Q: What sequence folds into this?
């Protein structure tokens, strides 16, 4: 059930020792030695529920960061990403993706407009080197410079309905003035000019802060957040809860819902892809794919019978024909249902369609349901 | 969590408690701790004939799937249906949460499994 992992070859965040002191269960995630859950928090389920109902905190320093800077930084960003970065105002961020010429995914990213000629792309851990190499190569014809600044930051996500109240104790910035997917710079835990973004990967309200990546500073900030969140029952959360939280919110995970063989239309990320913004890498292929029509599309499934659909399980139609596969599936701790995301042909993607997922040789009945599975309640004015 | 002296244990982290020619079988506290929050249990049908080492069911946590292996040969004479409704009970009390009751083919077969002391040594070495 357990195996010995050579953690020496794995990369570590500045908070690695702290996670171990907290007794976290550690796993190899994309080459990083990361906490998957904290028994001291009560485990994955408690962590997940803390984020939905109170507040939880995550070390997400394994995420990468690329700065694109220079007079043509906007042109370069437009060229390598599918959303329309010209629509961003300073202090605003949006979800986007880096595409191959085939219209498939290099990675998904959050683009932040730091300044007129200054964009920050936050990228996935497992694809850091690939993304940076790809961006560097493809922006080379623009007057700008791409820098990998991932190692400079410890990134901490504070997520949940009590995230604002928690973080507000530690900063002079009025957090209520930061809208969803906007950010500000301000003092956090005495650290000036800290990036505070109202972003996250939990389908819940929350913030991500970027602080210097030396161990003493990183641990001090972590501990101050822990202290500030105490009255709201804050718990440290691992990658296990991060995964179930993002799945309930139907947020894509690289290597699962998106990859170098899946295109934007299939992944149903149309609203983040601005075909009318001008040319960008992948656009021509996407135009062609649009004209040809879709062969498969991402849908949400809910198990009707007993069983948990999981990653890579096969999907069948009512006649017994294999029609697709599950990209991510799990028990959903907040919804208390067994849910999955799956690729199926468009003809079988209608809400309510009865489909079957093969679980250990048994075909378990599921139905296509609306997504996201979970949508956070609207804030009271 | 103490490992009861009157149980025997497998390296696959099942326990078996023999009483005469019947036995109760479950998973160890170490197993539930490694798995994390258990959310699904699948058990065999009453009447199923198991050989030692056969897969007799599945236990799933939020993040992992784990097969259950028969620690001894025998016939399933009862299953603990409460666990399929409340699988989290295994996390709360693994050694009290029996999964199946076996009518043993050989009441002595389980004697060769690990004692509680040997099992505790084994899981320490495994870590």
A:
């Amino acid at each position: 059930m357990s195996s010995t992992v050579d953690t020496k070859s794995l990369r570590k965040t500045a908070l690695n020792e702290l996670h171990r002191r907290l007794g976290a269960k550690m796993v190899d995630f994309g080459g990083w030695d990361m906490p998957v859950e904290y028994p001291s928090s009560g485990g994955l389920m408690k962590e997940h529920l803390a984020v939905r109902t109170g507040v939880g905190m995550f070390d997400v320093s394994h995420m990468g960061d690329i700065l694109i800077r220079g007079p043509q930084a906007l042109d370069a960003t437009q060229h390598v990403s599918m959303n329309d970065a010209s629509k961003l105002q300073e202090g605003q961020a949006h979800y986007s993706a880096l595409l191959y010429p085939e219209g498939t995914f290099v990675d998904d990213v959050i683009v932040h407009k730091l300044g007129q000629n200054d964009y920050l792309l936050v990228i996935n851990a497992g694809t850091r080197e690939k993304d940076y190499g790809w961006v560097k190569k493809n922006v080379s014809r623009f007057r700008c410079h791409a820098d990998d600044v991932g190692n400079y930051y410890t990134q901490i996500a504070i997520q949940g309905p009590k995230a604002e109240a928690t973080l507000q104790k530690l900063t002079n910035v009025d957090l209520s003035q930061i809208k969803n997917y906007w950010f500000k710079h301000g003092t956090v835990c005495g650290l000036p000019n800290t990036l505070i973004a109202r972003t996250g990967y939990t389908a819940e309200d929350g913030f991500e802060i970027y602080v210097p990546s030396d161990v003493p500073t990183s641990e001090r900030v972590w501990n101050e957040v822990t202290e500030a969140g105490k009255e709201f029952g804050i718990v440290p959360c691992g990658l296990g809860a991060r995964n179930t939280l993002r799945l309930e919110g139907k947020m894509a995970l690289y290597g699962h819902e998106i990859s170098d063989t899946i295109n934007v239309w299939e992944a149903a990320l149309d609203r983040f892809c601005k075909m009318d913004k001008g040319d960008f890498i992948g656009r021509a292929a996407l135009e062609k794919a649009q004209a040809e029509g879709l062969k498969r599309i991402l849908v949400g499934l809910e198990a009707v019978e007993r069983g948990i659909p999981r990653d890579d399980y096969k999907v069948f139609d009512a006649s017994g024909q294999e029609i697709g596969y599950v990209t991510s599936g799990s028990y959903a701790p907040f919804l208390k249902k067994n849910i999955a995301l799956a690729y199926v042909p468009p003809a079988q993607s209608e809400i309510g369609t009865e489909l079957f997922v093969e679980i250990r040789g048994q075909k378990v009945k599921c139905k296509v349901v609306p997504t996201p599975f979970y949508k956070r309640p609207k804030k009271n004015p | 969590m103490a490992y009861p002296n009157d149980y025997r244990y497998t390296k696959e982290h099942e326990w078996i408690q023999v009483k005469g020619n019947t036995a109760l079988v479950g998973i160890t506290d170490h197993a539930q701790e490694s798995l994390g929050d258990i959310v699904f249990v699948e058990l065999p049908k009453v009447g199923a004939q198991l050989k030692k080492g056969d897969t007799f069911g599945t236990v799933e946590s939020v993040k992992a799937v784990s097969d259950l292996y028969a620690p001894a040969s025998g016939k399933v004479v009862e299953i603990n249906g409460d666990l399929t409704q409340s699988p989290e009970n295994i996390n709360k009390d693994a050694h009290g949460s029996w999964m199946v009751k076996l009518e043993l083919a050989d009441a002595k077969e389980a004697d060769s499994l690990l004692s509680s002391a040997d099992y505790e040594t084994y899981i320490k070495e495994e870590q």
